[in-house]
Structure formats: C-alpha cells, structure tokens
Structure to design on (288 residues):
C-alpha cells in the first residue's frame, strides 16, 4: 500500500510539473516560428527574426527599463516597511498587535485596481489641496512604486514574521546584559538571523512588481512598463517578439536559479565538512 501511494505521488508530481511546463515550452517555441502570430501552429519554419525585432524595439526596451526601475524601488521600500512591521508586530501583544497585523494583511485582500485608483486620487488630491506642482503629487512611476509597496510590504512582513518565530529572544537579553546597545543588538544579532527571510522577501517583492499591471495602469501617468506595453499591444496585434522577450526572461531566471542552487549545495558541503571536522576533533580529544 505504501509503494502504491508513493507511485501515485510520483505520477501526480510528474503530471503537475508537465502541466506547468507545457505552456512555457509552447510559448518559447513560438519565438522561433516564422509566423506573424505568437503560436506554433501552423509551423512555418525556424527563424531568429523575432529576436532581431525585439532588439530593435526601442519602445519595449524603454518600458523594460522602467519596469526594472520600479521593481528595484518597490522591493527596497517593501523590504524596509515589511521588515520594520514584522519586528514591531513581533515585539507587541494584545489588541494593538491584532489591529496592526490586520491592517497590514488587509492590503492583500484589496483588488489592485482599487489600490491603483486610490493611490492616484490620494496623492493628486493632496497636491491640489496644498496647491503644489511637486512631482510627488502627479501620476508617474513614483506613484506606481508607492502603490505597489502598499500591498507587497505585507508579503515581506509575513516572510520575516515566520523567520522571527525561530529567533531566540534570550540572545537579545544576553547581549543587552553584556553591555550592547539596542542598535548593536539589531545589527549584529537580529538582522543576521533575518537575512534569509529578508532576501526571500526582496525576491518576492521584485517579481511581484515586475508582473504588476492593475496598480501601475492607474498610477503610471504617461510612462510605460512592460506589462502595460504588452497589454497595449493586444489592440494592434501581438507579434512573437513578446515570446522572444519572455523566453529571454525565463532563461535568465533559470540561470539565476541554477547559480543559486550550485552555491547552496557548495555551502552545504562546506558546512558538512566543517561539522565532520569538528566531530573528528572532538573524538580525538576524548581519545586522548
């Protein structure tokens, strides 16, 4: 019975992975089809021309640069806000903790279009109220960043909160008893423990920002991001240049994942070797 369940689990896992990968494979193959529509049927021959067209599409590359700029800014702010919120929530209790946690999580339940419209209206109304023409109070990519951070920060907060559950608060108390200041405890004890969650939160925030459309659409002003540009192309007809760009992004992501996994395994081997050496040294000490 156990072997039967294992076999079913393997079949399900294989089918699930194939289900996820087939659309990506079809999308990537369409980038090499000599057909004006982004599909593999009918197949009209192998070509590189869609990559050439992608390289020559200045509008798309400008939108891509805007997307990267917004993603980096949103990830940086979301990490700061989310980490600070997680540390604050973890350090308080009672109704105040429940209220603050609920306020942060509620942004995840609000539709993106509502967040985008609200962000745009709020900042423009503030600008009109104080009769200011400052760029902050006008639609643009900066408002896209602020609008995205309002809900992406909650994702970072959840990751950091989960990491905080494994933190030994006795380490903080010991450091304070030994004369360390609160900033030193934060910098040398707490933050190093949170670095894995902060890194994961930054990655989640970055990719969440890249794929965002609803918030950006209502706050971007006259600027274009990649998702907005791709959706605008639907009106005039999408060409396989979009497939070529998506394939390049997939390859870059895959390369980064491979590099990360190689480094992780290398660090695991080094750590295992150190532990083995420590056990060997301890055994030699006991022998003598």
């Amino acid at each position: 019975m156990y072997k039967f369940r294992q076999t079913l689990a393997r079949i399900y896992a294989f089918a699930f992975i194939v289900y996820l990968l087939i659309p990506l494979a079809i999308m990537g193959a369409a980038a090499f089809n000599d057909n004006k529509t982004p599909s593999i049927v009918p197949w009209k021959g192998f070509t590189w021309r869609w990559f050439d067209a992608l390289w020559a599409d200045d509008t798309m590359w400008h939108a891509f640069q805007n997307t990267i700029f917004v993603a980096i800014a949103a990830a940086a702010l979301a990490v700061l806000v989310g980490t600070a919120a997680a540390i604050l929530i973890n350090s308080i209790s009672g109704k105040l903790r429940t209220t603050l946690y609920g306020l942060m999580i509620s942004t995840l339940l609000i539709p993106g279009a509502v967040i985008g419209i609200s962000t745009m209206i709020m900042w423009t109304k503030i600008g009109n109220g104080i009769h200011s023409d400052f760029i902050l109070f006008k639609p643009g990519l900066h408002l896209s960043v602020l609008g995205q951070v309002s809900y992406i920060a909650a994702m970072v907060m959840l990751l950091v909160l989960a990491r905080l559950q494994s933190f030994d608060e006795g380490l903080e108390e010991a450091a304070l008893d030994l004369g360390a200041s609160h900033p030193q405890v934060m910098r040398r004890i707490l933050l190093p423990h949170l670095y894995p969650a902060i890194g994961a939160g930054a990655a989640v925030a970055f990719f969440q920002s890249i794929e965002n459309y609803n918030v950006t659409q209502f706050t971007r002003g006259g600027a274009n991001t990649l998702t907005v540009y791709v959706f605008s192309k639907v009106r005039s007809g999408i060409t396989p240049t979009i497939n070529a760009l998506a394939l390049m992004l997939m390859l870059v992501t895959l390369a980064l994942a491979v590099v990360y996994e190689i480094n992780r395994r290398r660090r695991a081997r080094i750590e295992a070797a150190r532990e083995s050496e420590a056990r060997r040294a301890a055994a030699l000490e006991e022998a003598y």
